[in-house]
Amino acid sequence: MAKKYYVVWAGRETGIFTSWDVTKRSVDKFPQAKYKSFATEAEAKAAFAKSPHSSIGRAAAKPAAKPSASESLKNNASGSIKTISDNESVISRYDVVIYTDGGCEPNPGKAGSGIAVYHQGQLAELWFGLFNPNGTNNTAELNALYQALLMAKNAIENSQTVCVMSDSQYSINCISEWAYGWKSKGWTRKGGEIANLDIIKQAHELYETLKDKLCIKHVAAHIGIEGNELADRMSIHAVDQTHKSFSQFQPPLDISKILALRTG
Q: Fewer Cβ atoms within 10 Å of its own Cβ: the N or the C terminal residue of the chain?
């Protein structure tokens, strides 16, 4: 029997599924549920990026051309990713897209970081860890962003185009904007001590070496963007497992099961 891909635009859980049982649980008796099956993953992804009305019965659009290194700089921080369609546009343009997230319960409290890595538009790796029993959400977000930059460096050195997606505008601003002013004043600021200074220095120094070839964008949290949702689950998984190192989540990468994990 040929494998099918089920797109759920409106249901208890939205996304692309390969199991009818999972899909049925999401849409059965859900008011005004919207879903449809597709023969290929590419068709399903193209459909999910659009509205149900515009997607049904239409062919998948061709992916946008991959940007050059110089184009990556032009795209750097050029607005937030606020819709699933915006996200699909980015993920189709870069060889590697890295989503980052940090979680803390309560804040301050037990903190952890998570990452989801996509290669050529496909989920390739999940990472979790850096548990801190006395952390903060901002520190967890910065830790995740720094780990993403380390991964981006490796990808760039292998001639791949990279976009890092963080749902923490604070973290992005710290390393790509505010750090320049703080550094010019000897890493001080008028308002007092700079929180999370050690990790900000490390991340900013690495960002400086990559920024001409790196796209880094803010992505809206918890709006159904798969990569962001998976990174969120990994950050809370780190908290639940009290996992102090930063480790790769071992396959199989069953997206539906992972999304069913506790959210932050």
A: N
